[in-house]
UniProtKB/TrEMBL annotation:
<dbReference type="GO" id="GO:0006313">
    <property type="term" value="P:DNA transposition"/>
</dbReference>
<protein>
    <submittedName>
        <fullName>Uncharacterized protein</fullName>
    </submittedName>
</protein>
<dbReference type="GO" id="GO:0003677">
    <property type="term" value="F:DNA binding"/>
</dbReference>
<dbReference type="Pfam" id="PF03400">
    <property type="entry name" value="DDE_Tnp_IS1"/>
</dbReference>
<dbReference type="GO" id="GO:0004803">
    <property type="term" value="F:transposase activity"/>
</dbReference>
<dbReference type="InterPro" id="IPR005063">
    <property type="entry name" value="Transposase_27"/>
</dbReference>
Amino acid sequence: MLLSHHEGKHSTEDAIELFKEVEKMRSPSSPIPVFTSDDWDAFEEALINVYGKIELPQYKGIGRKPLPKLVPLDDLKYIKVLKKKVKNYVFETVQRIIFGDPEEIFEMFGADSDSYIGTSYAERINLTIRTSLARFIRKGMNFSKTKRMHQKSIPTFGRSTLEIRTFFMMPF
């Protein structure tokens, strides 16, 4: 299920805004969505800022007292899916589980015995958005020439996500 979109730069601040919007849309009784993205460090930092808690490490009696740390919530799940390419051909897909229990995540995705998490859902959404909204077709007649007109066209697609780098999945 796609929950939100945010237009902006690829910065940590914009990623935080996107995740805050997702959090506003989520019911308090529902679980935190599973987040997947490509290898972009701003997402990891933004997720901890939105779905994190402050924890004070235990003082061991020697030296300076430790400073509070921002750590992810126990039920936060985040996976980075990386595609390694040679001459525009994908020769390897690497999945890194950043937050969450690997067994639980693979079970949620229905991963096969090789524990493979693909990008087909996110790629399908990207293709649907690009083909359904004429303004997203590059070098086309309807291509948005100004940011203002581009922003006006987005709500016509419904509650879609234009943060193409991320896919959110609500667990059942």
